[in-house]
Specification:
Shape of chain A: elongated
Largest interface: B-C, 78 and 75 residues
Distance between the termini of chain A: 25 Å
Strand content of chain C: 15-25%
Structural class of chain A: mainly alpha
Strand content of chain A: under 5%
Shape of chain C: globular
Strand order of the largest sheet of chain C: 8-9-10-1-11-16-12-15-13-14
Order of helices and strands of chain A: HHHHHHHHHHHH
Oligomer: heterotrimer
Helix content of chain A: over 70%
Number of strands of chain A: 0
Chains: A mainly alpha (294), B mainly alpha (314), C alpha+beta (563)
Radius of gyration of chain A: 23 Å
Number of strands of chain C: 18
Largest sheet of chain C: 10 strands, mixed
Amino acid sequence: MSVKAQRLTLIEARKAQVVGRRLRAWPLSLKLGIFIVGVVTLAGVFAPLLTPYDPIVGDFTDTLQPPSWKHPFGTDNFGRDILSRVLYGARIDLQIGFLTTYVPLTYGLALGALAGYVGGWFDSILMRLVDIAIAFPFMVLIIVILAILGPGIVNMYIAVFSVGWSMYARLARADMLVIREQEYILAAKALGYGPLRIIFRHALPNLIGSSLVFSMADFVLNILLAATLSFFGMGVQPPAPEWGAIVSDGRDWLLQAWWISTLPGIAIIITGLGLSLIGDGLSRIIGQRDVEAR
Amino acid sequence: MRLLGYIIRRLIQMTPALIGITLFAFLLIQLIPGDPVQIMTGGRASPETIAATREKFGLDRPLHIQYLIFLRNLSRGDLGISITQRGAPITHLVGDRLGPSAFLLTYSALMAVGLAIPLAMYSAQHAEQPIDHAIRIGGMVTLSMPSFWLALLLILLFGLVLDWLPMAGWGEGFFGHLKFLFLPSLAIALYLAPMLIQSLRASLLDVMQADYIEAARAKGLSPTRVMLKHVLRNGLIPTVTILAVNVGWLIGGAVVIETVFSIPGLGRLLVQSVVYRDYPTVQGLTLVFGVLVMGINLLADVSYAIIDPRVVYE
Amino acid sequence: MLSLPCRFRRRRILALVAVLAIAMLVAVACAPAAEEAAPAEEEAAPAEEEAAPAEEEAAPAEEEEAMPAEECTPTGEVKRGGELVFARREEPLTLDPAIPNDNGSIYAIEQIFSALTRPDEDGWGLEPDGAESWDISDDGLVYTFHLREGAKFSNGDPVTAGDYVFALERGRGPESGFAGIFEAIDTIEAPDDMTVVLTLKRPYAPILSVASIFYGAVYPQDVFEADPDGFSSNPVGSGPWMVEEYTRGDRLVLVPNPHYWELGVDCKPLPYLDKVTILYVPETNSRVLGLRNGDFDAMDGVPFNEAAALDAEEGITLHVAPIFRLDYIYLNHQNPPLDSKEFRLALNYAVDRQVILDTVYFGYGEIPNGYWPKMFYHSEDVPLIPYDPDKARELVAESGYNGEPIEILIAAGDTTFEQTAVILQQFWKEVGINAEIVKNDTGTAFDEIVAGNYQTSGSYITSDINDDDELAILMADISNDTSSFFSWYENDEAVELLKKAQSTLDPDERAEYYAQIQEMVYWDGYSVPINYVPAVNAYADHVQNWKNIAPGWWWLRTVWMDQ
């Protein structure tokens, strides 16, 4: 390795160290956010231990009960305990949010990085696709795709996987356009490393930042998407206790039994809040690191 | 003149994308399982009726012919006729609904801006203090609310508990619209505002470091006045950017609001048309949405060009 | 998707504001396009109103000639005038009477058009409408209708027999939504302007009822032919109301037909109201809240869970009316295991319908003992399939059911059936039948049913006419266009009896036949009938004489408001 290259690698390593030290002083929002999301996740995981009621099968003698000691969130028109449904629903919603966010992130990031680095016709075509995908009202696109495939959780995944990568591609490409001019990339190129290696080993760690920040907002939006699809009857099928489905079902009972719609909505809000806080915290860290790197 | 050239260039750039959108929508809809004629005729019609109806709507022709007919009609300003609405011209359907949707979106945007400006200013002035955090957290909360949940809550609150505002339809006359669309616009605005607040606040914070602010303060102008002046000059651009970029997403969100508040708008028509397999209407609406989104983006681009002429030379 | 803004230097904001202003003007400019359409219609109306006084001066002379047959003595007092705002769950998709199949359109059409006959006050019988009287030939094959003297369309043109022939031919032609309803008619003729003659292929008791159906409602031939495509948005009829405004997705505004023949209890022409605005409000909560706070005067589709609360509320009256509607679970007889009679009966024995009636319908309705809605020839004597889970288990075993889950298909957004499906799933599970609920959007669900790609599905059926024949035979005759209304139920014996029931004009004979058919098909496990569902409307106390008749729609012409 040439002296210059050695020095560059050392500088990189020291930057990582500095960043590592900074990471220990995480912003409050990040810690708070992780705490909230952690609680929700644990609630979902330990749901069977936290509640004696079955979220699917109801007790017809106990319908439409307002919140009480016996049923802290009340019961619905089938006599199902709403708290149980919300707890079990955490599993569904977190799973949906996670998969619909991070799966498209992986290939979206890769595609965008590739396009930004390689340029040329690949870049043009990809960006045209991205523009169309972003211009088209997202909700509309998903509804249409689901109309083709039919309702259900799997088809919802297929629909979002086909469309949800575009923003990550755009973010990665934008960052890549900046990064590819930076010294450590140019050095790696000079050293003769192949483009794929450069992209995935050297550039990617620095590209991930903005996508990660955005992914938090995306996570929230995807949970809301799942809820809205349930509202239109196109999403998760009954009697699965997806939060949006519970809210939507409670619509007909809004005037008599407000608790059916309102309380699962609060679960969505709390989860969303936690995720947004994480996003906020992450953006501060990334921002700091950018400042350091200069 | 340069500006005009820029506008024309952008328009030309947009055309292939527009055609792409209609083709895309056309093909996508064809993939949906289901026969619109069966749905429309309600199942009791005789085979003769079904065949005659199919012919009337040109559904018995091969796909590419159908698409070409669509394009030809388009050049005459005719969006075709609706299958579900039994032959009603789609241009009329869209025309009727464009008003409510446009009113709703404009009203929401204005409300969002109206909410965002003072809150962003307040936030920036007291940056990192509890009130700033509170506003930010408030924004995260409303952003995480499912739109239909928020809509239902507003209905409960304003319709049932406080009987102040109507919650269905869009009323008659300009002031009627203002009254009827208040709650729906509020639901959308509460969604939009947090994003606007975030960007406005960031831009304000940047400005607050600047020297000329210090100079203005030294002259005795209150920080609020200085900020307000700055916001009105510089804050509107990022605001417009966010509004423009998110308009596609906004239209999608309006679909839910239009449904819950029974507003006769384009979003609701779209969902209805998809559900009833009204291919011509979905196509026509896709085009309308595409034009709307691109038109708004063009408007935003033109705004940048006015602000920053360097853009024109790209 | 979110995006982050870039920063810009400051510049003239005037240009920006100008751009925004232009944008808003463009958006608002599109709205008047709709409003421009309306004034054209409004200009048309005053022209008619100017014509009317001239006719009214002429009319008294005519009325005095027609009067001798029915001299009018006032029998009551009403307050005329006022505007009624009626919030409806469905909207009309077309106002052309020959084509629709959806109740959204049908119930609106019934206000604008008249046919030869019409259902009477509660809907169970028939009375003259467009025809004042009729004669039946001895062999029961020729019906001669004498049209009402002086009847006019809302545009002032006289109603002629030629118009009836045109409308009826269209109603059984290639554009018709249900040509099959007129299947028994051989020829339709107008020997003169005031007589319509229907010649049947065979004796057919339901013909008078069929003559009331909206597919045969009359409209001016020349007006239709002048603009066939436009007629569905700008109809002209001879019913009590005419259209002032029709904005799809929003509202239908009706005003009185100035030439309507029928007189009210005060011996002046019906309707009593000045205007009826029918708003399309699909959101249930909005309808209920709107009625409560006075935005609406009346609403339909009161959800069962709200009915009691609304009734108890001061200032609001609940109106529960029996209608020709049956909610049931369609069974696809060609799709195993539903091809087994034992299995189908097991599905029935396993369910305690009282639970469904109480939980889903809040007690409104009646447990059915037949396969079509409760109408004139309904037999109370047919025994109900009782709730007997043990018997159900026996039958399941007998049928050789292999445990594979059966599918319950429901349309998304149909909350009544969603709930029913969940309850059925639980009951069926208890007797060893596994069921999966599949929720599809309305379009897909409909397609599946029409194509026969379903096993069971929750839906309802309503009758447009008040003769049992329409549905009884539609649902049980596999040879018709719908294959026993999408059940693929095959029973030649039942079809034989049904044909006999339609051919005899003797009501007692018909009653006997229908009782037999009802028992036979019901006990064959045709379906899983759930409820004879009533219509539940609600209206403000100042609304008087609200009537929801059995075929499903309302008599708006005799409604008045005490304000």
